[in-house]
Structure formats: structure tokens, C-alpha cells
Amino acid sequence: RRMRNLVKMSDLSKEEVYSLIQRALELKAGASPIQRPDLIAANLFFENSTRTKHSFEVAQMKLGLQVLNFEASTSSLNKGETLYDTCKTLEAIGCNMLVIRHSQEAYYQELEGLTIPIVSGGDGSGEHPSQCLLDLMTLYEHFGLIEGLEVVIAGDIKNSRVARSNYHMLTRLGAKVQFVGPQIFADPTLGQMVDFDQVIGQVDACMLLRVQFERHQEAVALSRADYHAHYGLTPARYQALKPQAIVMHPAPVNRDMEIASELVEAPQSRIFTQMTNGRFMRQAILEKLIADNAL
Ligand code: ASP
């Protein structure tokens, strides 16, 4: 099986997920990444990004790739050029792979005419495959397995591409996923909301999500304090966690909303570990993309 693009988690088999995790852990332990200074990677981020964009860039540098950062605001998109024509142009001038983040769900469907591969850095509320893989790596690194883990995902489930990718892949790998959050953030296609205090003491991982204010049609009137009290990781909920359980958040974090500020770097938090792991996972993804596409 060959990974032509990585735009959604269903592009990967379970075996491929585990082999990406193994490779990312090897790279983290000091293995040398492949070196391909002959290849050019272009990064096109049409939505804001700190971690995904820069960790892809660091991963590309570590593989010796040449890096082209596309500037949407000064490009011919402002003259009405389509996303397809923009990407086809980068292909025509010699880019070998594209990393794209775009606010439109499934934007990659209009890019099927490209011959160079795409890695998605997130499509609107759709999916976020590299985040999902780094989350799985972080779970695997701590527990040595994924099957049988109990995970609670708390926050804006409906608008979160992180929730969607993680729900689908965690379930496929045999983990149990439950959701916490206000009713307005429920996605009934994934599952119902449960009470945070009922599950906090049982879970292996507590995954917190940011409220995606930029994706809400109507202004959502949420009091930070109320949200924190009902759906946030408070010091009392942190105390209720099993000693082996871990706390995760894809970031950016709204401090004192989804998580008490003092807990961001608490001993059971893996929030910054997730970022470190993300760089190694993105190296592993790019290595696989290069190998599978015979670049
Ligand atoms: N950084 C993640 C994403 O781009 C999560 C978030 O923005 O809340 O989806």
C-alpha cells in the first residue's frame, strides 16, 4: 500500500499508523533522518498556525529539504487565481511536495489533478492528520499501546478537526473515546456529551480542545469562568486523575478556560511533549511521503 497524499486519517492503515509512530520514536531517540537536499517542499498556510507550520519547517530542514514558504497575502490569489492554479504553478516551477492548511473542508478534493503529493495541515473543521498522529505517538510513548485506552475529549467537538481525526483513528485502534462539553458543541455523529466529573477518575488520557471561536457562525457567548468550571481541567479535576493518566491539548491553549493556567506544565501534562513529538512525527510523515511517491 502506498500513501499518495496524507489529507485524512482514512488514508492510512493501522499498520501504517504504528510504523509511523515507531519511526517517529526512533528519530526522537536519535536516528538519522534521510537527507534529500534535491527536493523542494512548499508550505501553504491559508489559516493561522504556529506549531503545525513551524514544526513542518523544522522537519523539512532536518531532512535537508529546501523550503519555500508561500505567502498568501502577497500572491496572485488576490488577483483571483484559484487554489488549484496556485498549486499547479508551484508544481510547474519545480516544487516536489505541498503542505497545505486551508479553512475550506476537503479543499484537497479540488487538487486531484496535481501530480505532486500533498500533506494536509488541517482543512477547516474537517481533519488534522499530522496532529492526530503526534497525539497517537504521545499516547503510545507513555502507555506502550493504544488498544484499550480510555480517552475523554473535552471541548468544541463539533468544530474541531483534531477531535474528528482522533475519534476516528482512536476508535479504529481499539481505544474508547468519550466527549465532554456544552450541548452546542456536540457532534451527534461522533457521540453524546457525558459529565466530566463522572469520567475524570477513570480515563487514561484527558484531551482538551480549544473553543474554535473563528468557526462559529453566531457569536457564542461563553463566560470563561463558567466554561472552565463545567468543562475545563480545574485543579480539583486534575487531582481526580489516575496517577498514570496524562493531559493533552493540541494548543493554542486558552489559559484558564479549557485548562487552569497552573496545570499547563503540571507533571501529568504532555502538552509541550506533544509539540516536540510533532516535529519528529512530521519528519516520519515526510520520509514516508518521499518513499511512497518515489520522489
Ligand atoms: N492547532 C489546532 C488546529 O489547528 C487546534 C486549534 O487550533 O485549536 O486545529
Name some characteristics of this structure.
295 residues; alpha/beta; 4-stranded parallel beta sheet; 9 helices; globular; binds aspartic acid
Short description:
The chain is α/β, with parallel strands linked by helices and 295 residues long.
Q: Please trace the helix and strand order, writing H or E for each element.
A: HEHEHEEHEHEHEHHEH
Q: In which order are the strands of the major sheet placed?
A: 2-1-3-4
Main β-sheet: number of strands, strand sense, barrel status?
4 strands, parallel
Distinct small molecules: aspartic acid
Backbone structural class: alpha/beta
Q: Overall mean pLDDT score?
A: 96
Based on CA atoms alone, the radius of gyration comes out at 19 Å
Number of helices, counting only DSSP H or I runs of 4 residues or more: 9
Walkthrough of the structure:
Helix content is 35%, strand content 13%. With 295 residues, it is an alpha/beta fold. It has a four-stranded parallel sheet with strand order 2-1-3-4, sandwiched between helices. Strand 1, helix 2 and strand 2 (66-69) form a beta-alpha-beta unit. Helix 4 crosses helix 5 (161-172) and helix 4 packs across helix 9 (271-292). The two termini are 16 Å apart. The protein binds aspartic acid. Residues 122, 128, 161-162, 210, 250 line the site of aspartic acid. Aspartic acid binds next to helix 5.
